[in-house]
Design brief:
Blueprint lengths: L1 H14 L3 H12 L7 H18 L5 H21 L8 H17 L6 H15 L2 H10 L5 H12 L2 H4 L1 H13 L3 H29 L4 H29 L3 H18 L8 H14 L3 H8 L5 H6 L17 H17 L5 H15 L5 H16 L7 H20 L7 H14 L5 H18 L7 H6 L5 H13 L8 H12 L4 H16 L7 H21 L14 H10 L1
């Protein structure tokens, strides 16, 4: 009210060119006494600034400077009086709000270090007061949560929250003109805020699960707005910091880490978000130390599964796969790591990335698990020719566990598309004749055989169409058939033999379906090197299936028992 009253009065003076009243306004600004209310002084100065900015006249800049200096003096005293970024008494809290609202409504304001810091503190403590809310949720008994919910809704309807966009805009404009020390100060405030929000929200969400869903929903509305503020600020930082070689890498890494902490609150596509990500990733992926710094910021495997950061929930109650805040952060890392995996030392990938990657290949949500598979694909595909021996050795070591981990969760957990991409990557990029490739094929054949053996051979329609219970096993068989065109010549004979041993033990309808698929696949092939061998092989396989069908009696398991007699199988193996 005072701001608009002063604006009206000063605007009239400016329009009437009443120099006497304008000089009086300047005298009032320059002769403020300590007994005067800081709140009134801030709003009076803001009203003067607003009226001068709206007038468009450059003849009253001396008055504007006096108004800016007066707000700066009060802001400077406030900044110097704080003990840390989030410790304010009620007087300081109100004054911080007044300064933020005043600057947001004043229009253009010259850069002042204390104004920049005040705006940063206002954003993280008053505009988006998540720490205060989380503290009440985590410390108050459940019967008091209704009062906290009312407080959250009151804040959402407050002037300062509604002006969040304008306050962020002024903050970013001040940052663009700031000196290096001031920039570093506010960057640390914002980046630390992102980290703290991640930690606070994890604990609050786990605590409120199933009991305070409405409270959590309202908290997340504020957090989503805070995420937008962080994105806009980060974009402004990239425009200033990435031009400086000395600060480029550190700034890029800190932005990525901060984005990972706030990833859970990203609910829409933002051009500013994508522009920032592209800008910082270009810097990080070209520098090994930056890649390592970013990757090593991933929460450790122990922290992921134990929730060591919680002082409220017992470890036994923490289930990593339902921690959506943590999962969103890990997804962010798994989206970025493939872009810089070529720069990662083998030891770092093995120690930091691999445990998390294998943990999340077993995540019950297929979308999440696919990201983990994409990290495996990126690593297996990485490296220049010739690839260093230690990288090849690690790749082959990881394949053994990857196949075990993937198949033990298939089809209930492991997404087939993710697993298939991993298998194709290792077949293409591991050295020819690698033991890991032979092991992979063996495991796939055994899994397909095991799954097929659980289905009754009497259901001819099921075997004819490979639907229902057989759909998952059919996908593995399709993958094995696809590998016929991908594996190197050293592995091809083993794959052909394993496939033949599996197919001859299937019911006739199942064999016919696969043989028809093989005929078509080989007929369409342009590979003049392996096509003759495949033609001969499929002809022999067709004959063996015909012969084997006549002797089948009782369906049995491959590796345990068999569809055909042991004598028949020995004969088939010999002919293969």
């Amino acid at each position: 009210m005072l701001l608009h009253l002063v604006e009206w009065a000063v605007s009239n003076s400016l329009n009437l060119r009443s120099l006497e009243k304008i000089d009086l306004t300047r005298e009032l600004l320059e002769n403020v006494e300590k007994t005067h209310s800081s709140f009134a002084v801030v709003m009076f100065s803001a009203g003067v600034l607003r009226s001068i900015n709206r007038s468009g006249s450059s003849g009253f800049m001396h008055v504007k400077k006096s108004a800016e200096d007066r707000i700066e003096t009060i802001a400077s005293d406030l900044v110097l009086s704080r003990t840390n970024s989030f410790d304010f008494n009620i007087y300081q809290v109100l004054l911080l709000r007044f300064i933020a609202l005043a600057l947001a409504r004043s229009g253009s304001v010259s850069y002042k270090p204390s104004l920049l810091v005040s705006l940063a503190l206002a954003l993280v403590t008053e505009v988006f007061p998540l720490q205060r809310i989380y503290n009440k949720i985590l410390k108050f008994p459940e019967e008091n949560w209704a009062a906290v919910l009312d407080e959250i809704k009151d804040h959402q309807s407050s002037f300062i929250f509604k002006d969040a966009g304008a306050i962020t805009g002024v903050f970013c404009n001040q940052y663009a003109s700031a000196d290096e020390d001031s920039r570093s100060t506010v960057e640390n405030i914002i980046w630390d805020y992102c980290r703290d929000v991640y930690l606070w929200h994890r604990q609050a969400r786990l605590m409120l699960a199933g009991r305070g869903d409405m409270v959590m929903s309202e908290i997340e509305k504020i957090a989503e707005s805070a995420f937008l503020m962080v994105v806009v600020f980060a974009l402004g930082v990239t425009k200033q910091r990435l031009l400086n070689q000395e600060t480029q890498l550190q700034t890029s890494v800190r932005i990525l880490i901060s984005f990972s902490c706030m990833e859970y609150f990203r609910r829409m596509r933002l051009a500013e978000y994508m522009d920032t990500i592209r800008a910082v990733i270009v810097s990080v992926q070209e520098n090994e130390s930056a890649c390592v710094a970013f990757v090593e910021s991933i929460p450790s495997y122990k922290d992921l599964i134990n929730n060591d950061g919680s002082s409220i929930l017992p470890k036994s109650e923490h289930l990593w796969s339902v921690d959506e805040v943590q999962t969103a952060r890990i997804i962010f890392y798994m989206r970025v790591i493939p872009t810089c995996v070529d720069r990662l030392p083998t030891s770092v990938f093995k120690k930091v990335v691999a445990p998390t990657m294998f943990l999340y290949t077993g995540h019950p949500k297929g979308k999440v698990a696919r990201y983990a598979h994409s990290v495996f694909v990126a690593f297996i595909s990485s490296g220049k020719d010739p690839c260093p021996e230690e990288i090849i050795e690690l790749k082959e070591q990881l394949v053994f566990y990857y196949i075990q981990r993937s198949l033990e969760g298939y089809p209930e957990i492991t997404p087939f598309e993710g697993m298939a991409s991993g298998v194709i990557a290792l077949v293409r990029h591991l050295p020819a004749g690698s033991p890991s490739i032979f092991y992979c094929i063996q495991c796939l054949v055994e899994k397909a055989s095991s799954m097929c053996s659980t289905v009754s051979v009497d259901d001819s329609d099921l075997w004819k169409n490979w639907e229902g219970e057989l759909e998952s096993s059919k996908k593995i068989l399709d993958l094995l058939l696809r590998l016929l065109a991908l594996v190197d010549i050293q592995v091809l004979p083993s794959l052909m033999k394993s496939l033949a041993q599996l197919m001859v033990q299937l019911p006739q309808n199942g064999q016919n379906m696969l043989l028809n698929q093989l005929y078509q696949q080989i007929a369409e092939s342009d590979d003049v090197i392996r096509k003759p061998a495949l033609v001969s092989w499929v002809q022999s396989l067709s004959y063996l299936c015909t012969q084997g069908t006549r002797d089948k009696k009782i369906p049995k398991l491959v590796g345990e028992t068999s569809f055909a007699s042991s004598t028949s199988i020995d004969g088939i193996n010999a002919r293969l």
